[in-house]
Write a structure and sequence with these properties.
By secondary structure, the protein is an alpha+beta fold. Helices cover about 45% and strands about 10% of the residues. Strands 2-1-5-4-3 form a five-stranded antiparallel β-sheet. Residues about 290-300 have low confidence and may be disordered.
Amino acid sequence: MERRSDNRADIRDFLARRRAQLTPEQVGLPTSGRRRVPGLRREEVAVLAGVSTEWYTRLEKGHISGVSEDVLDAVARTLHLDDDERTYLFDLAKAAQPSPAPRRRRKAVDVPPRVQWLLDSMTLSAAFVTNGRLDIVATNALARALFAPVFDSPTVGARGRPNFARFYLLDDGSQDFVADWDGAVDITAALLRAEAGRYPNDAALRDLIGELSTLSREFRTRWASHNVRIHHGGVKRLHHPEAGDLELTYQPLDLPMSASEAHSLTIYTAEPGSPSEDGLRLLASWAATSAPHPPAHRSTPN
């Protein structure tokens, strides 16, 4: 029996919101008279994408199964989707395709020892591995010291695994730790939205999103915006309880370990000779002489 992901609501909301964010001027259409709703009309998107209004209306209602890549490309261009949003649209289309058998449950994958060796070799950079749900599944000593408030948070799960989404959205102390808390929460919700597009049948991910939606108004607002983020990096400012104010650059890298699980290796560094580098050195020294690391430092299944 064929099964498919029932993600029609996600498709509908995503396309409708992106259409509402565009103006006729942005797509080269003349403007005349007042509009009852913001953004483009469905028939305008259809004309620009080269499809019938009936067909685009059906697509925006979530009926995306069987749509060709060329048509999806045309819709993505018309709606001015960026690379991450385009990938998300294609992920939604892929998830909606019929499959000959039920989708297999995502299995936990052990972090290989070689990955832990890699992390431990970075002594002046804070490095850690997260899965697509933003659980920290492996870390080096400096990352454990740098993100001590995350590891010590009451939001840490029963298995002792910190989760960035729970920390930012359910721990009030996160607003003291992260300077740009709003930006961090925006990115967090967008990353989870993209992950949900890739893996709509992930029970653990659905549980996390349900928990955050129930307990956090900030998350509900951002989740409803349908913003997506896949690749991100930049500068993060932290107020560390021991090292003070830190300005660090960070860069996530894809870390292939399983065909069914998305892992990311993220590295935090400081500008050479800066006060933030001195702060990292202080934390590195503290971490090297402190008690043994908690279980999260060891290789753990995701």
